[in-house]
Amino acid sequence: MLLDLSEEHKEHLAFLPQVDSTVVAEFGRIAVEFLRRGSNPKIYEGAARKLNVSSDTVQHGVEGLTYLLTESSKLMISELDFQDSVFVLGFSEELNKLLLQLYLDNRKEIRTILSELAPDLPSYHSLEWRLDVQLASRSLRQQIKPSVTIKLHLNQNGDHNTKVLQTDPATLLHLVQQLEQALEEMKTNHCRRVVRNIK
Questions:
Q1: At a CB cut-off of 8 Å and minimum separation 6, what does 88 contact?
Q2: Where in this chain does the record put each COMM domain (predicted)?
């Protein structure tokens, strides 16, 4: 699977061939540090003074490299696919090898960082439901007013919490249809490829 780099990312990465390979390696280290701790303008300003360029140019170069490494790590693309993705940028063979080495050296750590940044969403534990039907009231002697009450038990970080939801059968039926449609869509080839690449 090849990376699809936008023109903006290609422009950001276009700065890399203009600098020495040691600088590119340092940019790689800064990119991983950027993922760990966030952006640090002082680092960009210091590097910009040494290279005699604007701090925005350095920042864009690091951000472009960060994007390249994170997307490659997220998709766990192979060495060959990474080389093919970088090849379209028109860099020298030496720079392509350096970028490949940066990717191979850091992909496990980047995946670990990305997994820590991902939100911890609640997961399903169990479900209780009840159907209530109001057949009459003081003002209306004959009416049918059904409602479904759902008690949803969830797990999150080892904690159990409960959500109580109430709806009418028509809305519940619509929700069920939408979920079934989503499950059918998950069986398509496109979704299978996406899920396989996420894992």
A1: 5
A2: 123-190
In the structure encoding, which two tokens stand for residue 162, read together? 């409960």
Alpha carbons 37 and 34: distance in angstroms, whole number: 5
HSE value, Cβ hemisphere, 13 Å, CA-based, for 102:
28
Helices 169-186 and 189-198 cross at an angle (nearest 10°) of: 80
| Structural domain total, the chain | 3
From the number of C-beta atoms within 10 Å of its C-beta (0-12, 13-18, 19+), residue 158 rates as exposed
Cβ-Cβ contacts under 8 Å for 115 (sequence gap 6 or more): none
| 12-22 CB burial, b ≥16 within 10 A, e <16 | bbebbeebeee
Domain that holds residue 192: 173-198
Tokens of 148: 């479904």
pLDDT digits (tens, 9 = 90+) for 186-199: 888 887 777 766 65
Q: Looking at this protein, which amino acid is placed at residue 61?
A: G
